[in-house]
Amino acid sequence: MAASRSLDIFPVAAGLARMAHAKDGDTFDHGCRMKPVCGMLAVRLGIDAEDVEKVGVCAMLHDIGKSTLPDSILFKPGRLEAGEYRQVMEHTSSGHDLLRGLGHPWFDDAANAALSHHERFDGSGYPRGTAGLAIPLSARIIAVADVYDALRAERPYKRALSHEQAVTLILRGDDRTSPSHFDPDVLAAFEHGAPVIRQLYDGEAGAA
Ligand SMILES: [Fe+2]
Ligand SMILES: [Fe+2]
């Protein structure tokens, strides 16, 4: 019975994401890319099949709070001013508010993942500075995949990194990211699953 409920819920989540991001195809596509990566990481972490599906729902919906941002910020081509960035940070709590209490427990988990996906394992994230295992597992998984996806993306103010560059940066850190930001178990799953992620992003040619 629980399995049939889980099978029903993903199309609902995908439809919700499509409507929320109707104007913002980039964020919808980002959620679509995150689903298989986060699902693969969840499988490698050994969680059961239904929870893997739930992580996929959380991944698809994690940035739904961005749909509440004004177009002037959402579609700004350059770097954000400090005040604009503070508004973007609120997509965590607004995503939580959009998803909670919809009547299916998976949406409550997705609400918590939306709230917590920018938290860091060492407590240096936002919005609450939650640390370690107090951060929901789905959010700890999304956090790693989210940074990878951002590094692979080209923006008007930055070039896209290659798969190898992105993986190396996440595992070693630089002035903006550190391995201490991530759950060590999720980071190990990311490192071991990196060839699969490469294939998901770059296809056969990239995997050669
Ligand atoms: Fe986000
Ligand atoms: Fe994201």
Structural overview:
The structure is a single chain. The protein is mainly alpha-helical and 208 residues long. The protein has a single domain (2-207), classed as Hypothetical protein af1432. It is 65% helix and 0% strand. It contains ten helices and no strands. It has helices at 2-20, 25-44, 49-61, 71-74, 82-89, 91-99, 105-116, 137-152, 163-172, 184-207. It binds fe (ii) ion (2 copies). One fe (ii) ion binds at residues 63, 91, 117-118.
Low-pLDDT segments = none
Q: Could you state the CATH homologous superfamily?
A: Hypothetical protein af1432
Helix content: 55-70%
Order of helices and strands: HHHHHHHHHH
What fraction of the residues are assigned to beta strands by DSSP? Answer: under 5%
Features:
208 residues; mainly alpha; Hypothetical protein af1432; globular; binds fe (ii) ion
Report a brief summary of the structure:
This protein is mainly α and 208 residues long.
